[in-house]
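In the laboratory, one determines a bound structure by crystallizing the protein with its ligand and collecting diffraction data. In a computational setting the workflow is compressed into a single prediction: the sequence and the ligand go in, and a structural description comes out. We illustrate the idea with flavin-adenine dinucleotide.
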Amino acid sequence: MDFAISEKMQTILELINEFVDKELVPLEHDFLHGEWADLEPVLEEKRRMVKKMELWAPLHPKEHGGMGLDLVEYGLVCEALARTPTGVYVFGCQAPDAGNIEILMKYGTPEQKKRFLDPLVRGEIRSCFSMTEPDQPGSNPTMLDTVAVKDGDDYVINGHKWYTSSADGARFAIVMAVTNPEAPPHLRASMIIVPTDTPGFNLVRNIQVMGHAGSGWHSHAEILYQSCRVPQANLLGPEGHGFVIAQERLGPGRIHHCMRWIGICNRTMELMCERALTRAANPKQRLAEQQIVQAWIAESAAEVRAARLLVLNCAWRIETQGAKEARQDISLIKYYTAGVMQRVVDRALQIHGGLGMTDDTLIAFFYRAERAARIYDGVDEVHKVSVAKRILKEYAAEHGLR
Ligand SMILES: Cc1cc2nc3c(=O)[nH]c(=O)nc-3n(C[C@H](O)[C@H](O)[C@H](O)COP(=O)(O)OP(=O)(O)OC[C@H]3O[C@@H](n4cnc5c(N)ncnc54)[C@H](O)[C@@H]3O)c2cc1C
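The predicted complex, in structure-token form:
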């Protein structure tokens, strides 16, 4: 495995870093204190600049208007963009659109691609992914209540979802609904594209998450599907294959998330060092001279580097051996990196004292918004159990144990 960064990537990363510092970091105050809708026109202008620089949609293939980077390269881009909260949005690689684009590319019919995929890749519309339900455990998504029943040429969808991120202002949702209730659990649900202006698609509210409801792309909605009727032509992929497709969406998606979290750690470390070097601890010393603060910085640095190498290694394995072979690594990086980020952000908050609790720095935002990293895309516990089971199985097989 070779992590040397090619000249091409070096140039791309330099351009991105410069853009982030010059164009996006100055928007952080408005991001933290204002409404998403007020920021959107400015972000649209930045998106146009990114497109002109030919840095738009780094992950998506060139024939779809993207940069066509591989997973390791794209991971490095995620890391660079995550230094600031609007980075991935401005470069056209934000969740949940990035994942939806991937599955539309793979499973979309020509009609679906024309209507939903093309404008999504161009950044003209947004989308959302509607799977989790308030009344069923999201960590076991075979237990869905939402149903899609065939009626003539249509599906009629009824169900209650929440945490449909970015539904506010999205043009369509990819909804996971039970279409084949008698099938084995993993073959019961399908993905169906639902335009958000369909009667019966009812956005109840943007949920307050850690005290903030947010708006637009930066929000998480509760949605009622009430006799919501869409043509059967809106089925995405084969009927009953919702989980198979969801798994495909999640594998490489975890690299995107984890490298984004590493980017957040990097920025947090910068803030931590800045504060430690400028804040007095007593008349003669700054915080940076306190050994406990030094220990936090040293521990954070080691953990972030270890996580970064694990994630890059996993991306390299997915690229060279496929997501199936890298399954254990994909689980492992998910909980490990989320935990590292949480610890690093927590230490940074502590070093900042009262200031860390305010929105005068990015830390409180990272602290509340990124806590969810240990919950979405597979809760920590499920990933840990799966890694441990595999290790134990391998050990048992090697040592003739049952
Ligand atoms: C910020 C945010 C954004 C999200 N965005 C989306 C989105 O865009 N679309 C979407 O569909 N969903 C989204 N989700 C939902 C997310 O996928 C679910 O919250 C997640 O799958 C967990 O499901 P749950 O909340 O129902 O928790 P539950 O399944 O009720 O689990 C609760 C807790 O029980 C424990 N637990 C569960 N299973 C096990 C087990 N097997 N072993 C040991 N302990 C266990 C864990 O500690 C877990 O945290 C988002 C969530 C958040 C917080």
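The first helix runs from residue 7 to 24. Keep in mind that any predicted model is a hypothesis to be tested, not a measurement.
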